[in-house]
Structure formats: structure tokens, C-alpha cells
Structures
1.
Amino acid sequence: MSGLLWKLKRLRLMSATEILFRLSRAVGLRFEQLRIARGWQPRPVGDVTARTCLFDTSHPILDEWTRHFDLDRSGLESYLAGSVGFFGHEPLSIGMPVEWHRDPVTWTVAPEVFGKSLNYRDDAIVGNVKFLWELGRHQHLVPLAVAYAITGEHRYRDNVVGQIEGWLDDSPYGIGIHWCSALEAALRMISWSLVHSLLALRDGEQGLFLAVKDSERFGLSIFQHCYFIRHFLSRYSSANNHLIGELTGLWVATQVFDVGPTGHDWADFAKAELEKEAIAQVYADGVDKEQAFYYHMWVLEYLLFARLVASRTGAIFSEHYDRTLHAMLRFLKDVSPDGGEPPQVGDADDGFVARFDPEWPVSAYTETMAAVETVFNKHHPIASQKGFWYRSIAGDLPSTADFSWVRNYPVGYQAGGYAVLGNNACHIVMDSGDLGYLAIAAHGHADALSVCLAIDGYWWLVDPGTYAYHSDARWRNYFRGSSGHNTIIINNQDQSTIAGPFMWTHKANGRMIHVGEKDGIQEAVGEHDGYQRLGVSHQRAVRFDPGKNEVQIIDNLTSKGENLSEIYFHFAPDIDLVQDEDAGHWIATRPNSSRRLVLKPDNQWTMDVQEGRENPVLGWYSPSLEQKVPTCTLHGAAKLSGELRSIISINVE
């Protein structure tokens, strides 16, 4: 019944055109399933061969690498032994030979049936699909290919080739968990393209085709990946970052590998669609419309990688495309405090386009932002392998976009809905954006008018993160619900209505009214309409006095009747929060910091502190996917009848 209800809700969010499209695709899938059962596979008109090495083999790239980096021998040995870490977790056994259909977390083995028929959202069937798909992206093979290119030690190449050939044995076209999603096929194509090009640095332009036992079978699989991506692109209400990732994978594969005349058509199509989606999915001010900072970074890296490959193959992207890259980078830098990362606004799945080190990156944001700057600015220092290899692909990359950046306060993103206030000590981000992108707003959180505060580069008032996608609806809903964010909720209801793990029905619309400075006081004002269904309007102003390091959060709530209003302030996990009962203040401190945060709530609020509560859920923080820790949440409640004007003063001492 729950599955039926989900489908009914999903249908209500589709246009008539989308419904017809999905019915047509379902019929086509059934037809394809029957054909595959009878032995059919998509096949190219000729052999698939190497086309372009992503790296210029005439340049001393390997010598240059050794001047910047050392091999992580211990991490590589762990990989060779079949132990790989994902999402920053402790390494997991993937088997050797690799068990491609076994989830390395739960050890659940996904059935080897028609991939598009698998319910990958059901843990009982496939286990934790995030880890299983991460394995199937083959990104862990790239560091081994780097090691072979640098050292020439055949054990690295043999391990890579053995894993790819094992995957080919276990995953015939259309069968199993790795043929569910066009995005997963696209990311695998990016990995194979990098591995092939790294092997080509040492072995010549044939790269992987020279290394595998059966180059014809390997080439056939490349063609089938491209066919699968092209025919199962995410469309309509699902056409978010997935579509950009799929197009990037198709574009890259058709540039690195020659898959015949059809491949040239696919390449032209992918490039044109990437140009179009860079406009459709990103506001003119550079904010990704999904309203999820991690996916903003994802889209930035996809668009960047496609641009790098175009530079290598001589294809030309538009000036607008480069300006979009620059605007997206500028936004991430603006919302990040000096020395820190952006707040965890919206969903985060902790993945990325490519990895070159055995160790999971300490900060994917820092690595990706630095890589963009390294590519477009020859004078930018090379800070990571990603920056090094991306610059090596790009070569001499001319661009009319200005990638320079200077810190300024305040700064507003009117279209995207964000404001950044602060000085060299305080950094404040206010979210007045819409819920998310397209009809289902899949990766948005009900966080309108939430405020996050960093002091000396460290977040004190935090966004709680994501924690889970499919595994637990109760936890999934908390981390994306309104009570998990530094905002106000009415009558214990989210601003927007959750209808599934990646779906919302009633959706709040946010608006940034004003960002500016007057008489030295910085101010941002925003509003949202999420509670108009309850007869309540909410407008919030955030003011910052740089001279006093004082933040004022001023909420104006107007109601047509009596309602319960609740306000939340979520602190980072290592912050202690105590009450000064005499003064009516709350004092936050952090180990190894002389700073104190003093919160002075309006006396209309009845305040309390919650930490690690499970029923109902409150007081939790997720530093990464599938990880959560208790944290202090300052919670206030007040009866709202008519107008409630509340002022929260925050002093940084």
C-alpha cells in the first residue's frame, strides 16, 4: 500500500506529457527485458577503439607528478588486498576477486535480474545501494592506474584490469544493480576513460585495449554503456544533477573512445544538452537550483570535467558556459568561511566525479574548488592530485571568464536566495531560497530562513546534514525537515510537505527581499510562504554589527489564529551550551577556543536544550553519509496569536 501511495503522489507531480513519456518508457523497458532474455544486446557497427588520451603523452607529466606528490603505498596495498573505504568510513572488504553484486556494508547480494526492474530503494533486496553503487563506479581503480603510470609496477595494472574483466563477467548488459541507473553507467565511463588514459601514459595510446584479454568485449561494453546512458537519460521532473552527470559521462566516453558513427551523433547531442542544462539548472547568479550545496559542487565538477575534455579534443563550449563555472565557484567561496567549508545546506551524498588518491578526500569542497582555480589560473598552486590531473587534461585553457575572487561582506544572491554577512571573525549565511528544483525538489530541505554562523572559520550554528537516503525514513525526514534547521516551525509541521524520500508535495517558496548595509550595519531580509496554508506568514531579518560582533535575528510572524511557534538553534557537536539563569542568557563555548557565543532570546520564548533525543528526533548532526552524532539544540516555544515579533541577539565574545 505504501508503494501504491508513493506512486499516486508521484503521479500528481507529473505533467500529462511526463506521464505519457514514462508510460512509453515502461513499455520500451518491458520490450527490452524480453529481448535481453532472448540474447539481444546493443552492438556497434564496428570495433570500438581508442580515440583520445586525456593526457598529452608528449609532455613529461609523470616527471612533473613526482615533483609534487608521493605514492600512498599503504593505501594502495589496502586496495590490492580488496579493502576500500567509501564516504570517509573505515575500509570495507570488497572481496578479491571483487563481489560486484554484494553490498560491502550489509553483505546483501543483489539479485542478477533485469536491472531496470530492481527496486534499489529496498534494503532487503539490494542492501545499502549507496555503497554498492559507489563500488560500481570504479573510481577506486583510478588511484591504482595512477600508481601504475608512475611506477610501471604491473601488479597495479593487473589488479585494475582484473577488476574490470571481473565486472564484465558479472555484469552483462542490462543485468543487475549496475544497470539500474544511467548516472552510475556515466560515472563508470568517466572512471574507465581516466584509467585508460593513465595506462596510455606508460603503455601507449591503446591503453586499456592493450591491457585487457579481450579488447573486443571491452569495446562492446563501452558502446553498451553509451547506448544505455543515451536511451535512459533522466527526464522531466527527474532531470536534475543526474541529467548533467549522465550527459558528462556520455560526452567523455565518446571523446576518449571511438564508438563509431553513432558515437559522433551522441557526442554532439551530449555537448548541446550540457550547454542547455548549464542554463536551465543554474541561476544567473551562479546558484544551483537544487538548493543543495553539495550537489552545487557536483554540478560544478561535472561541467568542469566536460569542459576539460573539450579543451583536450578541440571542441568549443560557449563563453556563457565558462561564466557559469566561474559564478558557481564564486558562490561556493562566498558561502564558505575563511579556512572552512560551506554549511551543509540541502542533501549531500558525499560523492564526486573522480578521485585520484586512495584516501577519501578530507574535504571534497576544498579539493574541487581548488581544482577549478588550478585549471583556469596557471599561477594557482597545485594543492591536490585532482588539481594536477585536471590541469594536465585541460592544457592551455583559454577563457574569457574572470576567475579572480575577493572576500566581501555583505553579499547577496537574489535569484538563488542567499545572503552572506560577516567580518574576519564572524561568517553568517542566511537561506531564503526556494525548496528545490523541478516538481519533486528531490534534494532540497525544508530550511527556509535558516541561519548558520561560523566563528574563526568553524561552524557553531550548523545545518545538520543528510545522514540517510533510503535506509530509514524517520531519520531521513528529520534531517531534511524544518525542525532540523535554524528556523521557526508552526504547529509541529514542516514548511513543505514530505511525500517520499526524494519528493515533496506542498512546497514553500522563499524570497530574498533585501541584502545591504546602512550606517555600518549589514542586513538581510527574507520571507517564505510555507505556512500560509495555516494562515501564518513568516519574515526574518538578520542584522550584523561588525564593530560589536553582534547578530540580531528578528522574526515577524503574523497569524489569523492561535498557533504554536517553535524556534531552533542547532550547534556543532563539540560545542557546550549552558544557561545563565540570572541573566536569561545561553552561553556556548568550544574546546580550544577562547570565543563565547552568548544568545539572548526574547522573553516570549520558553527555551530548553535537547541533545540526542530519539522520540521525537531532535538534537543530531550528520558529519557524513550514514553517520550521525548527538549535538545540542536550543529550542524555544511560544503561542502565536496575531503578531509575534521576536529578537534573538547573538554576541561573539
2.
Amino acid sequence: ALSLQAQAGCPVTFSRTHATLEAGTFQVVVEYTEEAVGKQAIEQAEALIQAALNDTPFDSDKVIAALRELDEDERIGPSTGAIVDAAVARGIPFRRMTSGSMVQLGWGSKARRFQAAEVDQTSAVAESIAQDKDLTKRLLHAAGVPVPLGRPATSVEDAWAIAEEVGLPVVVKPQDGNQGKGVTVNITTRAQLEAAYATSQQYGDDVMVERFLPGHDFRLLVVGGQLVAAARREPPQVLGDGEHTIRELVDIVNQDPRRGSGHGTALTKIRLDDIAIARIAGEGLTPDSVPTQGQRVVLRNNANLSTGGSATDVTDDVHPEVAARAIEAAQTIGLHICGVDVICESVLHPLEEQNGGIVEVNAAPGLRMHLAPSYGKPRNVGAPMVDLLFSGNDDGRIPLVAVTGTNGKTTTARLIGQLFTSQGLRVGMTSTDGVYVNGRQIDSGDCSGPKSARNVLSHPEVDAAVMECARGGILREGLGFDRCQVAVVTNVGEGDHLGLNFITTVDELMVLKRVIVQNVAPNGYGVLNAIDPHVSAMAPFCTGKVIFFGADRHHPVMATHRAQGSRV
């Protein structure tokens, strides 16, 4: 199962198998990056072994390809992943809320949410404005930001009238489009405009016609009122070698491991579709033409990465006035994170000096071109986005106390919750008799598992959390949190709670219960029962300091742990 995942491109390295007291029964643990991929790998590994035992065929290439495809579908995208990685680097906990790109950072009342590169503080009104290209352009023009002339067209005839009004060449695009879909640029004839109008209508009823601005396509990324990255985008293209056809050259370029079929890779495969065929037909070429040595064949007019384009980082070259116009555009629309598309000859000079302009703003911009540009320096654009959500040293965490043991867990959890409440904090508590938030029961039954813990940590009214952690939940799914500020172990006993999942001895139960002690924050505390030898033996495994209860400072247990150098 580990090898199948590794060959499918998953970065996994850990697996282990243990025999049990039951003959022929083994416990197997295999690392995964995506749960669905891990489960499918286990199923296929079993099928592989059975095929080997029965000497029957097994198509490993097909299985690995299916795992790779599933991994691409399941794993978090590069834009979302960059923000998550930046949050993890700051010690901020995260939870993926859907199979898509909706993620929660932080816990309880400190939690923040984002989707792709769009944060929860951005209003739906601002996003709607950004989707309306005509309204966006009118607002930017009113704010003194340079934009191309043009307006929405009501028909093909109106579109041609607008083209004659603003002057050829023009650009035709959907009014609420994205990712370059349905966009045709550098239109110079009525026939080209009619074809472009029909293409745009496939992606939206409302079509925009505006003056074509000559120059290069730049994407400027604005986060929290600051320009954090910029890239020059090039349209998908191939370079002739005098031997291969255009179709073959596209296949060669697509062999680049950085290119994939979706948004999960640094670059997207070039498509030789109708749009590309129409583009090269304008140069008298077909997919089976053989370009001469060094001949540059452009397959699309737009330079979006999602259609196979490439990017070069130019962040250090952006003129302060160009940056200022991009920031004004983001603030005018009301976007906290904004991708500003600029057409100009160079970002080294102000837009006004070169008849450049801002042609579009994006409310949820893709980050691939900045994270892994085709050429130039990668930019860690996730870090400023996390800084936008969590200022200073805020790690998005609330006080969290985990309680486990054989007896007395619920009583202890209630007492700790009461202590928090007396300090004016709204408490979320999980226990074997329900889930409570700010004194109100929101769930009943045995709620001492990780699912209940995650629900509490997602609740917006929780300022502090107390989690009862029973052995069943830990065995099924773990803890439901990555670390706690305080871990309390009441006792282990001499024989209670044995027999579940092959936990048959007190020593094995101790290893299970000490999981919460091993996940104490470095500045946190493990609170251990000094009288119970199995509990006091957990002290060396605590990653924070240790507090013993049940014995005075002269108790032999205390002296033993001081001698061992434990942080008691």
C-alpha cells in the first residue's frame, strides 16, 4: 500500500505491521496524504497480494494511474496549499472543511475561513463587482485608474459599432467570465468579431467589447493594500525545430512534469483545440504543419496559465506608480486579496506614460504563477495572506485542555470547564454525556471522540475548550486536534477498559493514554497522577513541563523524575 501510493506520486514514507494475539490477524498502519487515496491503496494492495498468491493477472500500471488521478482530485490545490503551508509555519491549526478549497484556520472564536485565495472578510458585494467587468471598469475609471475604452454589446451589430467607436483592434470577452474563457484579443475584422462574439456567448449571455491594448500581459497580486508579487504571462506557444509538426511539438511540451490537466500542478497542459486551431489558421498553419527552426507558434491570444500559458516573475521590476494603480484598483472594488491584470509594454514605467491599462480584477486569483513561475524567483505569497487573517504573533489557538484516564474524566473535565467559566470565558466541552458550549448542551450521548472535538473547535462562541479523550475515539481517529496546552491523566488502573482493538494489557493501555501527553505544546503542561505508576511513567514523554498531583514533593516518584531530568 505504501509503495503503490509512492509510485502514484504521493509523498509517503511510513508503514508498519504488528502481529496480534489472534493467529492470522495483523494490525497494519500506512501513511497517506489523502484518506481516500490511502483507503484505495490498501484495497488494491490486498488485491495485488491475492493475485500473487493465486498466480492471476494484476494491472499495476492501471491501478497506479487510478491512484494518481484520485490523488489529483482529492488533494488540496496549490493556491490553497500555499496558504495552509504558511499557516502551519506559524503554528496555526487548519481544518479542511470540504473536499474543495474551503479551509478553516484557527479554533473557536479565533477561527478564520478562506476559500482558494478569497478570505472571509471580503464581502459578497465586492466579489460581485469584480465579476462584472463593465461595472469594474466604470468604477476604476471614476477613481482615475487607467482602463481601456469599451462597453457591453447587445448584439453582433452593436459589438461592431462599439469596435468602430473605440477603434480597432478590439477585445471581445464575457462580461462575467474567468480564467480567460471565451476571450478573443487583437480583433481587426468584422468576420473575426462575429466569431469571437459567438465564442464569448458560450460562456455568458453578456459580451464586452473594448479597445485592445498592445503590450505584455502582467498579473499583479495585491494583498491587504500591498503589492506582494507580479508576473509577466506568456500565451501557450511552441518553438519550431524544422522536424516536428505543431501537434507533435505540443505533445513534447506537455511531457513537462510540471504540466497537468487541472489546477493541481504548476503549469497546465496546452490544448490543441478549436481555439488553438483557429489561432494558427490565421498564420496559414494547421496542426500538421512543420514550423521552421526557431519559428514561434502562438496557440492562443490570452496568456492565462489555465489554458497552458507560462509566467515569469517580475516582482522586483514593478514601478511604484504601477503598484499604486493596482492597489487603488483593489481598494476601489473592495477586495482584500486581488489579482490585477495589466496590459502594458513594461512594468518599469507608469501606465499613463505608455498607454497601458488595467483590463480586469480577480476576486480569487490563482497563485500558481507566483508560487512556481516558469522563470524567475518563486514568491511565498501565502505568508502575507495569513498575516492578513492573523496579525502579530496570533496563532489562532484558544486554550485547550485534554483529559483522559480510566475513571473520573468527565468530573475532571467539568471542574476545569467551571474554572474557565469563572474567568469569563465561553467554554466548549466534550464528555461522555454530551457536548456543551457556553453552558448549553448542543449534543448528547458519548461525545468523547475526535468528531465532537472538531465540532467544538469550529464553534464561533468557544473561547476555551476542555476535551475528554476516551480510548475508543483515540483508537478510531486520533485526537481531533494537533496539540493541547494542558493534558490531564487521572489514572490507568489495573485492568479496566481492556480488550478494545487488541489493547489487552495495562502497559498497552498506558501507551494509548499517553498520546495526549505526547501532544502537549512546548510551553504547556502535562498534569499526571503521581500515585499511579503507569501515569507517572508518562512524564518523560511530555513535550512540555510536568505537574504531579496526589503526592508531596518528597514522594519517591518526584525524586525519581528530578533525577531523570524531567521538567517537573
3.
Amino acid sequence: VGTPMSNLKIKSITPIGSWSGPTDHLLTTPEEFAQGLRRIGTPLYAVDHGEALGLASGGSVEMGGDPQGDPRLHGLPLLAVSPTCRPQNFGSASFARDHGVRFCYLAGAMANGIGSVELVEAMGRAGMLAFFGAAGLGPDTVEDAIDRISTRLGDLPWGFNLIHSPYEPLLEEAIADLYSRRGVTRVSASAYMDLTLPLVRYRLHGIRSDPSGAVVTPNRLIAKVSRIAVARKFLAPPPSTILAELVARGDLSEEQARMAESVPVAQDLTVEADSGGHTDNRPALALLPTMLALRDRIQAEYDYAVPLRVGSAGGISTPHSVAAAFAMGADYVMTGSINQACREAGTSDTVRQMLAKAEQADVTMAPAADMFEMGVRLQVLKRGTMFPMRAHRLYDLYRTHAGLEEISDDERKNLEGTIFRKPLEEIWNETRRFWEQRDVTQTERAERDPKHRMALVFRWYLGMSSRWANRGEPGREMDYQVWCGPAMGAFNEWVRGSALDPWENRHVPSVAHNMLHGAAVITRAAALRTQGVDLPATCVDVLPRDPGELEELLT
């Protein structure tokens, strides 16, 4: 710091023009370079300043030629240009316009209300889009959240989650119908392995043509997927078999069904790489380009009036990952794990403390409550909790036994003493009362099928472990189920020693603005590097800053 950048071999760069201006204002040290790059709304010009590198933020530029070899040109040789890079310009302009957002930055729906009313509201007021985490909640609770969010945000952007529920199809149908009835026009569809009737019915609710003849679909789906086969179904028009069934049920007219053949099930597709919760642990660097290529093929095949869009999720936790996603062609980015550590998330301070200490290796896979019988797993925090080990033990018992009655006395005693802390019969009674209110067909089946009864009892633990974590249940810390991906560790490393290091200072809008601003700084530095200016890493400062300083840098 403080040493002019004279060690760079700038003579190897062919000038692209000339720059003229007061040389006493040139930035010439790494510290000054970092300051200049942080002011993302001001263009920078790299010049040959007496065989040393200088950055100018003003003056005049004439493109073409070399002032040292052309007597008609005046000033210093211009080596490269780093243009302005404003966060609102990242991503797809059509995505921002269609969803009414200023920034193509989304907060994903964390289940059980972790993606809370407060989180959705904070993001909406910041010009971004967040989804309420409706998965795992009953219709009454979800409808209450709709009341609160729609009243508080009005026309500002907001959305809700619809999760695939293969073992609770009635709940999925009830939530989808609730969204149509209550005018929820943005839904993040997650964990789908195939299209379902309630999902497609929601998407096509209210489909019509405008006076110009264009097809209008009031309800928008943003589908989160990680597999090509599933992505293809979402990007294509609804299957004819589902359309025929919707017509037969009276949910669509014949004319509406014909209109539906010209629109995709999901206009926007979120590519989910290695993430918290349900995940296939796919690498983003390989998955995103594959999905972008699929998007282009399907768009060419169907020639949709509004082009398909693809966003990136999973591992989005630092300015570097945001910059990389947009550089690869993402239309938007979606964050998840890092929002759970913020003040607005619907979880406990104990969980926030646990997440703030997490490193990238502190996560593992564990059985999922909603798809327990299928052996589906999700990614959770393993540091500070025994949940993953205990959940795996329950699934092993489920897989090798036909019912609770087959479990040995010693094993049963161990379960009742360490995991359930109650007799299994008492757990079953609680479970039965729950399902009698939520879906009586589950208890009816359990009375006939001992293995299903065992699954419901074991799912009691998997379901309660998340709720214990969310409310910070004392004495159950070792059983906390905290959905988390390696992104959390990367985030903690990035913010170390900054204003966002203490979890008490983490708010979703502040995190988002710092991520976007840092991505802009990285993009500006990359522009110089691609033109041959070899900037040292110390010149690229993306440490988080408080909102006041960020605002000053933007102006």
C-alpha cells in the first residue's frame, strides 16, 4: 500500500487510445486502485503513466491510435477501460420488469416459515423478491401470512412457496388452491420430481388473451430444479394429459387449454446447485451452463413470445459467486442458507449463532421428513447437533423392520431414552392427533399398515427437530435440524472481521446490497484484467460495509 504500480509490465499492452486530464488526480497505488474500483458508478481508465500504471476517473478519452506514435494525439496512452457496473444492471431486464424488482436478486423460500413475513417484507421494500417458506405449514398459517404480506407490501414484489408433497397430496392441492383464491401471483415451486395437477392448475388459473391476442397468464411459476429431465418438463408447455384432465374437471375451458399450449409451465427456472435442504449436491459450474443450453434449445423449439429465463441458486454466498453466476449468463440469482443467519429469518438466535460459526465442511446429508419413506435426503448443519446421526439411525430401522413391534427391547429403550425421550406409544398418540386434524387418511392407513405407522412415528422426530431449532427449544439443542449448505461457511469466511461478522448485524437487505456491490467491484476488476491489466488481488476490496458507506460509494 502506498507504492506506485510501476512493477507492472504495461509495455506489453497495446494502447487502445489516449487519455487527457490532470495527472495529479491519477490513482497510482493499490489502496487508491481499490478505492476507485469500489466507486462502481464511475468509469475508470487505465493509462501508461511514465511506464507505471495509473487509473483515471475523469478527463477525456479518444479511442484508437497510440499517442506515442501519432503526433495528432495528445495525452497518455489509454490501456484499458473499466465501465460503470451498477447492481441494478445485473441479470435480465425482462425478469426485473415482469416481477417488479429493481435487482435480479431473490431470497429463496426456507420451509416452516424460516423464510418469514419479515424477511419477505424487508426484501420487497429493498427492491428485491423473496418467497415465504410455506412448506411444512398448514393452510390456516399460510393464509395468515398472505394477509400480512399482501397488506404490508401491496404492489411491491412478494411470493410464496409450493413444495411437492408426494405423501401429502391433499395438502399440496389445498395450498395451490389457496394461492389461486387469494391472488398469490408469484410462486417458487420446489422439490418437484414431476408435474402435478395442482401445480399446473395454479399456473393456468385465469389464463386469457388480451385485446392484441397475446396470451396472458396472471400466475407466475419460478421452478427450482437440479435435473435436466425435470427442467425440460417445466420449460415445455403443460402436458396434453393434464390439460385434458383440467378441462374434464371444469378447471379450464377448451379455449384456455389451447392457449396453454403456447406458454411454458415455468417462465423462470432456478438452477439449484449444492444447497441447503433438498439438494442433489450438483456443482454450479457444470450445472448452470447445461441448463442454459437446455433453455436455448427449448426456446428455439417453441418460440415463446417471452423468452425463457434461468437463474442460479446453491452456493450463492459471496460477491465472487454472484459475479460468477451473472458472468456465466444467469438472469437472476437466488440465495438461501445465508438468509437463515439474518435477523429477519423465522428461526431462533441459537440457530443464528450456530450458523455464524459454520465452516464449509460443517454440513452433511440426512433423511428428509417430507419424503422419508422414499429415502430422499437433504443437507443440514452437523456442527453442534446430533440430528444427522440420529435421523440416519431412524431411517436404517425403518428400512430393516416391518413395524415398531419388530424393534428389539434394547433398541426401543435406546430410542425412547435418547431420541424421543418418551415412550413410543405416547409419540404415536401425539402423531395420531396431529394427522387426524391435518389429513385423517394418514392415520387410517397407519392403523392398517404397521410400517406406515412406524414411518409416521419416526417422522415425528424429523418434523419436531426443525421446530425445536426454529423456536430455540432449551434442552433439545443436540436435536436441532438446521438446513444449511456449504455456502454458509463461504459467507462466514467472506465477512470475517467486517461489519457483518457478528450475526446480530446481519439483515437480508444489507447482505444482498453488499453481495451485489462486491460483485460489481469484481466485474470491474475483471474488465481490466481481460484487457491485459494485471491487477494484484489487493486492489479488489469486497469486504462488507455498512449501508451508509455503500450508498456513498454508489453516488
4.
Amino acid sequence: MSKTLIITEKPSVGRDIVKALGGFHKKGDYYESNQYILSSAIGHLLKLCVSEEYEAKRGKWTLKNLPIIPPSFSLKPIEKTRSRLKLLLRLIKRNDIDLFINACDAGREGELIFHHIMQYAKTKKLQQRVKSTSMTTSAIRYAFTVLRKEQEMQPLADAAVCRSEADWLVGINGTRALTAFNSSKGGFQLTTVGRVQTPTLMLLVERENAIKKFAKKDYWEVHGTFQAISGTYTGRWFDENFTGKGKDDLKPERVWDLTVAEAICKRCQNKVGKVTEESKHTTNLSPPLFDLTSLQRTANKNFGYSAKRTLQLAQALYEHYKVITYPRTDARALPEDYIGTVRKTLGVLAKTDGYGPLASTILKKSWLRPQKRIFDNARISDHFAIIPTNIIPKNLSDIEHKIYDLVARRFLAIFYPPAEFLVTTRITRVEEEPFKTSGKVLLNPGWLAVYGKESVSDNTPTIVPVQPDEIVQAIQIEIVAAQTRPPARFTEAKLLSAMENAGKLVDDDDLREAMSEKGLGTPATRAAIIEGLLNERYLIRNNRELYP
């Protein structure tokens, strides 16, 4: 009887598939049933290399032997996982195997791991792909009913090979060139270079240079306290003719000449002013669902977790607890046919203590409906956004629960209506000098209720009410001295944002367009890039700040 060999990327995923499909018996480092054989690759088992005839034998760390651009690449086993590769090759060569199923992680890297194994084994047997973004039993079983053909996956495999070979070419040539340059005066100064790590490092170096070159400038603000019929309020002078938006440190409320500030102060002190104000009803949508980078940013900002730590925690929630969907994603939308699954997930959350009332409200008020902001196939590549599964989490550690809570509340909030505010802008004009006062009132919490901001009283304005065209008294006008500040150093949250939006920093139009979609690296690799720079001592971490 012929059988199918399933290859997973990690042993834990293999165990989940074994449990979901059933009927397996463990045989050393693989499982076997009447229909399937299953084993794991334990990540990458092979690495790129070039044939010896194209590699410099002597003086390979000298500039004269560069660049290295081989006509083709070979594959070489990674030493520490050689035994697992031997096992897979033995299983691949079994006569009763007539089909291979790639069950590695459903992305470019998982495609590359499987592709390299098949290439190294030189097999011509039929190959198919199973893609599941959730590790629940029902999701795994369904995924095995909709296997994808090898031809469908070929573009992803080609992209994976292209990126892998580009990384190798940039890495080996750049590293050997800079090492040779830095070692020219003696010693061996290994200087690693990477397609993603080097421009990422440049972001920090440029920021550090900007900080070091920054020259503080003095400026002043003019603050007023005004007596109205119903009480006092404060306002800040501003330049109504300001045209320098976005230029260095220029802002309409800053006065760069002390004598000008003193003149405003003298002119307005103890004078009366006329008040006009405008109130505008505004709405604020909930933030979109998480992809990995936005989850890492939020966890760094809220809890100080590194990008690497957040990825580890999210991976555990996905693999071990099965309470969130696949985390290594760059999408922030869900498939258009996913409404039924989302309804089931909301039904499960409705039975929990922490999220029950919130999920029940969504279902009772019929807020779950098709809308492009949430369900949009056009904004999904390999995987969709990170959301909870229909499994209730149990026995999570405190830090695991914090990451799950971020995902669960972001998921619930997306279905709630916008928050509604009344934004008031008050202009107090004294001796023709304008002072601005702003206030904001929460009218309807909408999605903010998911985060506990349900009370309007929590957002009552700090400004007292005034009558239309009321005359007020300027009881105190004072000058506040200040200095401009240098740019802030990167935290991991800010660096992840900079990597994601790196295309905006490129001057060349074509290159900027090429980088506009993805930025530097991928959500799955950015944490490793930052950790690599730290390990190489190109960066140091000081509290939450990163220094080159």
C-alpha cells in the first residue's frame, strides 16, 4: 500500500498533525499510520554553498578575490542537524512513498526549507502543500482536505530561493570586503554585512549622528490665564500666519525672539479679550488587527518586551496553546470567507469571564458583518492577521496572558463602532493677539469600551464653558522658556516602525516604490535582525533605547 510522507518544520507541529489525523504510531523520530508517515525538519537542514572550483582557496579574505558570483549554488548539510536530514532522506527513498506533503510553516521560509530538502534528495515524486494558519484540530483536518498543488506554490518557492541567494551574495561579498578593509593594518577584524542588517544599522547610525550634531536652540512660549464668568482657563499664544509646518523645530506656538515674547506679554497683561470657539463632532476608528510587527511594537511600548521575546511568546500561544492564529504575518486583514469562523470565535470568547460581555455585545448587536476594513483578500499575502482561535486559553503565564490579551482585545475592538468625541477649539483674542485652548469630550466610547474607557466623566474637558463672544479678563500672561530637543533614540518599537516604513527614507523614486510595500526585512525576520545586531555588538541596549 502506497503512503504519503508529511514533512513539518517543527516537531511540535508534527505532533499536532499526528493528533488531528489520528492512527499514528511513533517510530523513533517519525510517526507512521496506514496512510501517512510524518517527520520534522527541525528548521533549516541545508545551507547554500558554492562548488570548490568557484571558491577562492587562498587569500579568500582579500579584495582581489571579490566579488564571488558563482554561476550556480549547491546545498550543504548543516552539521548540528545532519542526523535529522539523514532520517528524512531515508524516508524519502522508501519505495512505498508516492507523495510528499509540505507541512512546514505556511510562508516563504517554510517553502524554502521543504524545497531545499526535495532538491537535495533529487526526487521527482509528486509534491503537495498543506497550509493552515491555525493549529486547532478542526483547522488542521480541514487544511488536509484542500491541499495545494506543487505548481501553485512554485512562485513562492522561487521567491524564497531568490531571497536566500541574494542574502548569500550580499552577505559573503560585503562581509569579506569590509573585513579585508578593516584588517588591512593588521589583525583580523571580522565585519559582518547583511542585506537587511546593514541598512537597519544605518538607521541607528544616522539617528545617532543627528543627535550628536544637534544644537539646542532657545525659544519661548506665551501662556495666558483668563477669567470667564464660569471660572478660569488657560490658553497658549500662537502665530496665525504660521507656514513652517514640518520644518525642523518650527511650531506656531514657539517664539524665537525673547523681545517679541515680552512685547506680547506686556501688550496683553490685565487686558480684556473676546472669545470665539468652534466645536466639532469627530469619530475615531479602532486600530486595525495585529500583524507581527505591530504586535511587537505594542508589546515593546506597553511592557518593554523585545521584538524577539514577543515573537517567542506569540509562537508559544500559536503552537503550544493553540489560542491564536499564525503570528509570523504581515497582513492586518482577514479572508472574506472568514466571517463564520470569526462568529464561532466570538461565541467561545462570549463564554469567558474576561471577554464575555464584550463578545456577547458584538453578537447581540449584529456588529459582525462584511466590511473591507476587516475582511479583504486583496490585503492578504501568505497569512492573515493575528486573531484568537476558538480555544479558551488555560494555564497561561502572566507574560503569555499579556500578549494574548493584546490580541484578543484588538480583535474585539475592530467590530465595535467608532469612538465619538466633541472637540472644542477656543480662540481668545486679546489686543489682537490670539491664544488657543483645546478641549475634548468623549460622547460615545465605542471601541474604547473594550479597553475600559466607558465613562464620559473620565473625559470631561479641563476648560470651563463660555458664552458666545464672551468678554474675559487676562489675569496673568507669562513667558515660559524652553529649548529644542534632539531626535529621540530608537526603541525597538520605533526601530520596527522605521524598518517597516524604510522605503519612505529612500530618495530614488524607483527604489522607494520597490520598498513601499514591505520595507526592510519581513515581520518574521525583523526581531532576529535586531538580535543579530546586538549579538555582533553593532548595537547596545540601554533600558529601552538602542545605541549604535
